[in-house]
Amino acid sequence: MSQVYSVAVVVGSLRKDSYNRKVALALAALAPSGLSLNIIEIGDLALYNEDIDVEPPESYKRFREQIRKSDAVLFVTPEYNRSVPGVLKNAIDVGSRPYGQSAWNGKPAAVISVSPGAIGGFGANQHLRQSLVFLDMPCMQMPEAYLGAAASLFEESGQLSEKTRPFLQTFIDKFAAWVKLIKAD
Ligand code: FNR
Predict the structure, then answer these.
(1) Share of the chain above pLDDT 90, in %
(2) What is the pTM of this model?
(3) C-beta 120 within 6 A of ligand 1
(4) What is the largest CA-CA distance in the chain?
(5) I need a labelling partner for 75 at 20 to 30 A (CA). Which of 2, 18, 68, 126 fits?
(6) Does ligand 1 lie within 6 Å of residue 18's CB atom?
């Protein structure tokens, strides 16, 4: 049987009707057979504080373990004030500690940003890529994915629009190839 890589999907929005979560679920449905995508929840993570990390809360332990067990990570995020939403930055910080034991270390990654705005969360996407360099996560360069006009990505029924599908299919197929390349090292 051929290898199936598990991908932790981290969504940078906690909103019930989040466009980013919808895109994440659409990508999970489009993923080729070599990838298995699962959303890892971040809403219960206490704000990172080294003092409480002396006896880490269950939420920190659960999150770090889920990331550690995954072969790769896909970030799907909105932009807040031209940067990464605090909830996502917090999750990144939680996963990166204790010092020297980062759960992110070496995992292949990709970033997709989704916004109702015209520039598709470019600022968040690029700031996130900066963190991934420091976390030593080889991040897929192309295709870049800045999805603007978020409402138009879906039909009224909630289904992915036919206009959006080909790009997301290409994105997830290329990510599958990227994960395979990095994990084969
Ligand atoms: C936003 N939003 C936003 N959009 C954008 O394109 N650039 C930005 O800098 C910001 N800044 C921003 C700050 C804060 C605090 C909020 C709450 C929102 C709008 C944002 O893109 C919009 O709410 C999206 O719908 C959020 O993504 P989800 O929740 O739909 O996935």
Answers:
(1) 97
(2) 0.98
(3) no
(4) 49
(5) 2
(6) yes
